[in-house]
Design a protein that fits this description.
575 residues, alpha/beta, Glucose Oxidase, domain 1, Enzyme I, Chain A, domain 2, TIM Barrel, 3 domains, eight-stranded mixed β-sheet, eight-stranded parallel barrel, 23 helices, globular, binds phosphoenolpyruvate, binds magnesium ion
Length: 575
């Protein structure tokens, strides 16, 4: 038995068999092939192509019924690529001409293709390079007789252990019904961690060397609350954890009674509890938790795990699905926040520069840089706005000028729709995320042009404290109670109040019950979170007296001792 510690990012206990996800890119050998064996080498290459085709067809047959339609088109694109002359024929020719092994010939061919795509101006075509790489890697694995599709072998109920998972991987795990996951790297507010919470499965990140110590098939216990991974536990430990798991299930059943109760404080203040969702299918969990609406719909997830972006129609259909699942409730559709750790098919969105991606072309910056990506989304959201309560939210605003450019584009899109007699709500609310320190400090300058604010504490903390969300080496600095963060939150709430626009919070801090009381005291009235913690937050809201918490919050803001702030909040929560 061995225990490893990491950062627990999603509560709960899972007991199950390990699946170690290894996805290293194969080493490519280079050797000469004697003339008389050349045709045999070409045949070996073709067998690897055929094996790749069979694997893809099997995966295609097993797409779960609830998987997004993009899953199939993604596989179709890869199947087509296997037949592409530039891959199959050109590699066979290269084996013959260079008299080299199939792996090397394929690698040379894929380098030529990558360079070609790299030179293309078109963002989507450039992203095709990633597909080519994925197809090439699959054939290479088959040539080297390595397993490629680790994902596809994951069985329901297993615990996935990996060095790292991209948000796109995590979406795929969702379809495999895994019970928990553990990564050696990653931070608590990485999108991978956020997805784990929204899936409601226990998860641990930055459990260093987990992939080195765990073997597939071994029994594991994941304690998401304590961030503990137990490898090959003995019988007594398993029994103890089963008992705790039952206890947690009992507590959850009790919380479920609050589903239909309203989020009203003891001093009769109404608090709005909204849900964060990543995919239209998540709206079910939001409705089940009794959410008052959707406070953050991360639309970029619609763009992942597929070769081409969804067109206007597909986006529109996705939005309608969400709207119709929560009739009459506010639905906040955030425009694309791609870039940084949220890549399309593992590729860097919009640029080839890889230094400091979190500070680069991300979110609204990427959308303004590549309006061919942005315009169809604006049209799709505006068309969806004929349904009451649809709001648009712009991520990562940092300057007024950027906001004006977005507002101009929205106006242009409205005129276009009007000209083609397409209906939309001309008064659709447009809000801005306050998640860059510059925007929080200047919230009063943004307020006159926006209908609401939503504070994105994940990025606000990342950018204010200069800690990369996905870098486990700086996790220890993550602190929502840092005085700078509390001051920026308070500044934003006050600016919203002064301009009479609502202020919500949709970062992870809003769904963390440890901060609910303090946020109520700071004047927050709209909380948006993954549905998994909504009832716990509601329970705290119902036991709160905002008047008393306001006095508490002003003492916290005045404190000149950060450690004392932690102690004060802990003491308040223990009461
Ligand atoms: C945030 O930054 O707090 C936020 C809600 O957006 P995301 O986590 O998608 O960056
Ligand atoms: Mg953000």
């Amino acid at each position: 038995m061995l225990a490893l510690h990491g950062t627990g990012v999603s509560d709960g206990i899972a007991i199950g068999k390990a699946f170690v996800l290894q996805r290293d890119i194969p080493e490519i050998p280079e050797y000469a092939i004697p003339q008389e064996y050349i045709e045999e080498e070409v045949a070996r290459f073709q067998r690897a192509v055929e094996a790749s085709r069979r694997q893809l067809l099997v995966v295609r047959e097993h797409i779960p019924a609830n998987a997004p339609p993009e899953a199939a088109s993604f596989l179709d694109a890869h199947l087509l690529m296997l037949d592409d002359k530039m891959i199959s024929m050109a590699t066979s020719d290269a084996i013959r001409q260079q008299q080299c092994n199939a792996e090397w010939a394929l690698k040379t061919q894929s380098d030529i293709l990558s360079a070609m795509f790299e030179q293309m101006d078109d963002h989507y075509l450039r992203n095709k390079k990633i597909d080519v790489n994925q197809v090439v890697n699959r054939i290479l694995r088959n040539l080297l007789q390595k397993n490629y599709d680790e994902h596809e072998k994951i069985a329901a109920g297993q615990i996935v252990v990996a060095d790292d998972l991209t948000p796109a991987d995590t979406v795929m795990l969702k379809h495999n019904h895994v019970h928990a996951f553990v990564t050696s790297l990653g931070g608590p507010i990485s999108h991978t961690a956020i997805l784990a919470r929204s899936l409601g499965i226990p998860a641990i990140v930055s459990a260093h060397s987990a992939t080195r110590y765990v073997r597939s098939g071994e029994e594991l216990i994941v304690d998401g609350k304590r961030g503990m991974l137990i490898i090959a536990p003995d019988r007594n430990i398993v029994a103890e954890y089963r008992r705790r798991k039952n206890e947690l299930a009992r507590e959850r059943r009790e919380l479920n009674r609050l589903k239909t109760s309203r989020a009203i404080t003891r001093d009769r203040r109404h608090i709005t509890l909204l849900a964060n969702i990543e995919l239209p299918a998540d709206v079910r969990a939001a409705a089940q938790a009794g959410a008052d609406g959707i406070g953050l719909y991360r639309t970029e997830f619609l763009f992942m795990n597929r070769p081409t972006p969804p067109n206007e129609e597909e986006q529109h259909r996705a939005y309608l699905k969400v709207i119709k699942s929560l009739p009459g409730k506010p639905i906040t559709i955030r425009t694309l926040d791609l870039g940084a750790d949220k890549q399309v098919d593992g590729g860097r969105a919009g640029t080839t520069i890889t230094i400091n991606p979190a500070l680069g072309l991300r979110a609204v910056r990427l959308c303004l840089h590549d309006t061919s990506l942005f315009r169809p989304q604006l049209r799709a959201i505006l068309r969806a706005s004929i349904h009451r309560n649809v709001r648009m939210m712009i991520p990562m605003l940092s300057s007024q000028d950027e906001l004006f450019r977005v507002l101009d584009l929205i106006e242009e899109t409205k005129s276009e729709l009007k000209r083609s007699r397409v209906k939309f709500n001309p008064k659709m609310a447009v809000g801005g995320m306050i998640e860059v320190p510059a925007a929080a400090i200047c919230a009063d300058l943004f307020a006159p042009y926006l209908d609401f604010f939503s504070i994105g504490t994940n990025d606000l903390i990342q950018y204010t404290l200069a800690i990369d969300r996905v870098d486990d080496a700086v996790n220890y600095l993550y602190d929502p109670l840092h005085p700078s963060i509390l001051r920026l939150i308070s500044l934003t709430i006050q600016a919203g109040k002064k301009a009479r626009i609502p202020v919500a919070m949709c970062g992870e801090m809003a769904g963390d019950p440890r901060y609910t009381s303090l946020l109520l005291g700071l004047g927050l009235t709209e909380f948006s979170m993954h549905p998994a913690t909504m009832l716990e937050v509601k329970k705290i809201v119902r036991n709160s007296d905002v008047g008393a918490l306001q006095r508490f919050a002003s003492r916290v803001l005045k404190s000149r001792d950060t450690r004392a702030v932690h102690a004060m909040v802990e003491k308040l929560n223990d009461r």
